[in-house]
Design a protein that fits this description.
Layout: E1 3-21, E2 24-38, E3 42-47, H1 60-74, H2 83-90, H3 97-115, H4 119-123, E4 129-131, E5 133-136, H5 142-155, E6 159-163, H6 170-180, E7 186-189, H7 199-202, E8 213-214, H8 222-231, E9 236-238, H9 245-253, E10 259-262, H10 264-267, H11 270-282, E11 286-289, H12 296-305, E12 338-340, H13 353-359, E13 360-367
Parallel strand pairs: 5-6, 6-7, 7-8, 8-9, 9-10, 10-11
Antiparallel strand pairs: 1-2, 1-13, 2-3, 4-12
Helix pairs in contact: 1-3, 2-3, 5-6, 9-11
This protein binds 2-succinylbenzoate (OSB) and magnesium ion (MG).
Length: about 375
């Protein structure tokens, strides 16, 4: 398979409502789509970097630059590449996992489409639908929060994740438990907003029977998480800290977490995601699939990954209408709390040309 070139496409997807976390508020999703065109097919990837480097060091403009300047040109040296060769070629450059993941996924999609194989069967999926959770942003009031959670439970979501930060933690969790009961699968995500000095405060969350607390401490603090995990009954889950299969193995070895959020963009793609899944499964550690407000392109691949056997908890694999009034692919919908795994070749969905054009802000072609 010969690579003819790569299209980088920037788009602005309006969000139905602002999404607030401990690190900032998003109102529009700044997306970078990567389309790889080969002698036999074309494939799509969605870069999950955000417009500003707040969740991690990558950001959309930076990802576009590293793709056009280093990652895409490095493929020119490859003759008849497969996804492993492509992935190896990108390893000469440090960091930038989200940019790498987008290019690797676009190529893998093209490769699988040419072979007539679905992403889910390629990765090793064992189910044809996955349970959907939803991530609920920080609100201005408890009333607003309860109204939003009620809407998501009515829609059928099987698990609720509340974003927390100092000043918005114990009371919102208590309010959701009191209003919706103990049967709701409930978890929280701090996006690194606490320090180990907050351990006594965070212990108060133990009263609410949470599934897990996600990334309470900064990314580098594996030992801090291990210490916190000893002090809390609530299982500690890592998101930002999990940057590779090697880091995952180290985190598990020291007891830094007992649950892992796998986000393909954060770890450099679906091949590394599968390795993390395998490490966790071999250690009896539950994993679930995180999200980065993906459009249907990124969502399709995430849902395929979430169909692997180690994904035993509902992911942030929500329906398209969680964030978007109109997705750019055929929308992902909730059916009794589940989202269907696409069956077609590759990621199994494509952008609808008119809808993609409508949100596109720039297009650039990089020939080989
Ligand atoms: O920490 O999981 C996170 C969104 C952007 C950046 C980081 C995170 C999130 C979410 C939303 O929690 C996940 C989603 O619904 O796509
Ligand atoms: Mg998180």
């Amino acid at each position: 398979m010969k690579i003819d070139g790569v299209e980088l496409r920037r788009a602005a997807m309006p969000l139905k409502a602002p999404f607030r976390t401990s690190f900032g508020t998003e109102t529009t999703k700044d997306v970078l789509f990567v389309k790889v065109v080969t002698s036999e097919s074309a494939g799509w990837g969605e870069c999950v970097a955000m417009s500003e480097p707040r969740y991690c060091s990558e950001y959309t403009d930076g990802a576009a630059e590293v793709l056009r300047k280093f990652l895409i040109p490095s493929l020119g040296e490859l003759t008849d590449p497969d996804v492993h060769a492509l992935s190896a070629a990108m390893e000469q450059f440090a960091g930038h996992p989200m940019a790498k993941a987008a290019l690797e996924t676009a190529f893998l999609d093209a490769e699988l489409r040419a072979a007539g194989t679905s992403m889910s069967s390629y990765l090793g999926a064992v189910v044809d639908r996955v349970p959907a959770g939803v991530s609920v942003g920080i609100k201005n009031s408890i009333d607003e929060l309860l109204e939003e959670v009620a809407g998501f439970l009515d829609a059928g979501y099987l698990r609720i994740k509340l974003k927390i930060e100092p000043g918005w933690d114990i009371e919102p969790v208590r309010a959701v438990r009191e209003r919706f009961g103990d049967d709701v699968l409930l978890q929280v995500d701090a996006n690194t907003a606490y320090t180990l000095a907050d351990a006594r405060h965070l212990q108060r969350l133990d009263d609410f029977d949470l599934l897990l607390i996600e990334q309470p401490l900064p990314e580098e603090e594996l030992r801090g998480h291990a210490r916190l995990a000893e002090m809390m009954r609530t299982p500690v889950c890592l998101d930002e800290s999990i940057t590779s299969a090697k880091v995952t193995a180290d985190a598990l070895a020291i007891g830094a977490c007992s649950v892992v959020n796998i986000k393909p963009g954060r770890v450099g793609g679906y091949l590394e995601s599968r390795r993390i899944h395998d490490v966790c499964k071999a250690n009896g550690i539950a994993v679930w699939c995180g999200g980065m407000l993906e459009t249907g392109i990124g969502r399709a691949a995430n849902v395929a990954l979430a169909a692997l056997p180690g994904f035993v908890l509902p992911g942030d694999t929500s329906a398209s209408d969680r964030y978007f009034a109109e997705d750019i692919t055929e929308p992902f919908v909730l059916d009794n709390g589940y989202v269907k795994v696409p069956e077609g070749p590759g990621i199994g969905v494509e952008p609808i040309p008119d809808l993609l054009e409508a949100i596109t802000t720039s297009v650039e072609w990089i020939g080989m």
